Amino acid sequence: MTDTASVPTIDHPSFGRLEPSRVIIFDTTLRDGEQSPGFSMNLAEKLRMAEALAALGVDVMEAGFPIASPGDFESVHAIAERIKGPVICGLARAARNDVLRAAEAVAPAERKRIHIFISTSPLHMKYKLRMEPDAVLEAITESVRLGRKQVEDVEWSAEDGSRTEPEFLCRAVEAAIKAGATTINIPDTVGYALPRDMEDIFSMLRARVPGAEKVVFSAHNHNDLGLAVANTIASLRGGARQVECTVNGIGERAGNAALEEIVMALRTRPDAVAAVPEIHTEKILRTSRLLSAITGFEVQPNKAIVGRNAFAHESGIHQDGVLKHAGTYEIMTPESVGWSRSSLVMGKHSGRAALRDKLRALGYGEIGDNALADVFRRFKDLADRKKVVYDDDIAALMDEGHLRDHTRIRIASLRVVAGTEAPPEATVTLEIDGETKTATATGDGAVDATFAAVNVLCPHTATLRLYSVGAITEGTDAQARVTVRLEEEGKMVDGQGADTDTIIASARAYVHALNKLLVKRARTARHARPDDCGRPTEGCRRRPDD
Predict the structure, then answer these.
(1) What is residue 371's predicted lDDT score, i.e. its pLDDT?
(2) Which DSSP string do the residues of 389-444 spell out, in sequence order?
(3) Across-strand partners of 62?
(4) Nearest in space to 241 (alpha carbons), one of 542, 2, 452, 52
């Protein structure tokens, strides 16, 4: 077990008195997670995800990289204004403009943090920064001091810290502490380290660096070797008391340490790591599914904690054991992370009160009357088409409703004729900025014909990079969930749609992606020009190298 007596009790500007066993959950789903190709979110989606993370109980929410783009700044600022509870954090390079921009973005937050980073490994300093070690130390001191003039809570990160020479890492951490950093983060940026490496790094820093007893040490591990969660647990054993993670483990390349896996490992094995996260674990599954719905990326069936097979037992021996005593093959209860033992509960005779109660049980909280009326209408329509309605069906209805943001383009009607005697033909009627237009097209299959008809009404230069179909539940009447990914001039967007008819679900996903593409065009624009739907937009602004 970790010797918590060796980790001091400290006073922190954001959390007050921190006891040795307290572990801070730093969620970077909206920043590091969103940097994954195809995982970008619009403002409405970020706000919705931020609300879910706050309800989950994360301590720190890294909302974005404010200087990266006007859209990132807008998202961080909006989250800082609207989200209550967590510390709201903005990322910044060790540069004056970055720090000031981050400070401006997080200014409305009740509790705010600036997270400053700079590379410290020989490889990064030579080839990425092209800076000498002394210049890096000077940049650390100047940027952290500037950050402390803006906010009380400043985190400093040694990018590629796990490949940094120990002597220089100690000097860099000491400089950051002297300049006023309240949290020191040592990332395994490229997922290179093994668990023993990370434990040793934190133990070394706490033993060798003056002032180490006054700050929180933080771990940020990537999953390139599949060791992110193991390295995070080892970091805690070495004395870290903040863990940086993402929902579903999303993130650059192979991703980050998964929040749900870290939290449940700590809850399940308090004998091995005496660290207590204050997370509402029963909301883990709901948060995971919300992220999947927003990004269009489902977790694999055997994903720990939130995969659909996480609590499934097919082996006869396992089934017999679980029936006799669940603890024979389950180390945690499904209910503890939001799973339900029974999912078949609703049908066409169910009323509004039953639906409201079911939505509350599924983790959606209190639903307003207007929102309830909309989902109830769609629930009744679905119940008329399906024999039974499962929990996952209801969750998909809610997600489908929330996905219809920024809808300059709406589907009014769709008719498809397909068979063996003639090429499939689709007739689509769209409402584009309030104007109704209809087009008919043929294609190589019903979906291709549908997309072609949409393209007649709203031409574009985007390339279809992904078309994915999955069944939400079982049976021939199951709802299909379709994900479409479009790429245009380096910009990637994902659209999702769900329906018992795969063609309708496909059309919804395609139109949802087009709507997001139009929003992204407008947000990253610079030079006015007519867009492909005949409306003014602007040219692109590139993100700075981050």
Answers:
(1) 83
(2) EEHHHHHHHHHHHHT--S-SEEEEEEEEE--SSS--EEEEEEEETTEEEEEEEE-S
(3) 89
(4) 2
Which residue ranges of the chain lie beneath pLDDT 70? 1-5, 313-320, 322-323, 341-345, 387, 399-406, 523-546
Backbone dihedral region of 56: left (phi > 0), alpha (psi from -120 to 50 degrees) or beta? alpha
pTM of the shown model: 0.78
pLDDT, residue 528, reads 39
Residue 299 sits at φ, ψ, to 5 deg, of: -75, 155
List, for residues 314-360, the tens digit of each pLDDT value: 555 665 675 677 778 788 888 899 887 645 457 777 888 888 888 88
Picking from 240, 236, 256, 248, the residue whose alpha carbon sits closest to that of residue 191 is 256
> What would be the CATH architecture of the domain defined by 19-295?
Alpha-Beta Barrel (3.20)
CA dist list (Å): 367 to 353, 357, 361, 377:
11, 10, 12, 14
> Are the C-beta atoms of residues 509 and 496 closer than 8 Å to each other?
yes
What CA–CA distance (Å, rounded) separates 221 from 432?
45
Our CA dihedral for 23, 29, 30, 35, rounded to 10 degrees, sits at 130
Q: Find out whether 426 and 449 touch, Cβ atoms under 8 Å.
A: yes
Q: 385-390 — which CB contacts under 8 Å span 24+ positions?
A: 385/477, 385/500, 386/475, 386/477, 386/478, 386/479, 386/500, 387/475, 387/477, 388/344, 388/346, 388/347, 389/346, 389/347, 389/350, 390/343, 390/344, 390/346, 390/472, 390/473
Residue 410, number of CB atoms within 10 A of its CB: 16
Residue 245 β-bridge partners: 27
The domain spans of the chain are 19-295, 340-402, 409-537
Report yes or no: 164 and 158 within 8 Å, Cβ to Cβ: yes
> Which tokens in the block code for residue 121?
């490994």
User: SS3 of 336, please?
Assistant: helix
Structure tokens at 285: 């599954």
For residue 186, report the phi and psi dihedrals to the nearest 5 degrees: -115, 100
Q: What is the DSSP string of 355-401?
A: HHHHHHHTT--PPPHHHHHHHHHHHHHHHHHSS-EEHHHHHHHHHHH
* Cα 365 to Cα 51: distance, rounded to the nearest angstrom: 12
Q: What is the pLDDT of residue 526?
A: 39
Residue-level pLDDT at 539: 34
Q: Could you give the CA distance from residue 287 to residue 88 in angstroms, rounded to a whole number? A: 18
Q: Residue 291 carries which side chain, given as an amino acid letter?
A: L
* Contacts of 365-374 spanning 24+ positions with Cβ under 8 A: 365/55, 371/401, 374/401
Separation of alpha carbons 140 and 387, rounded Å: 63
3-state secondary structure of 322: helix
How far, in Å, CA of 479 to CA of 393, rounded? 7
pLDDT at position 319 is 56
The predicted pLDDT at position 471 comes to 82
Residue 77 pLDDT: 98
Please give the CATH architecture assigned to the domain spanning 409-537.
Answer: 2-Layer Sandwich (3.30)
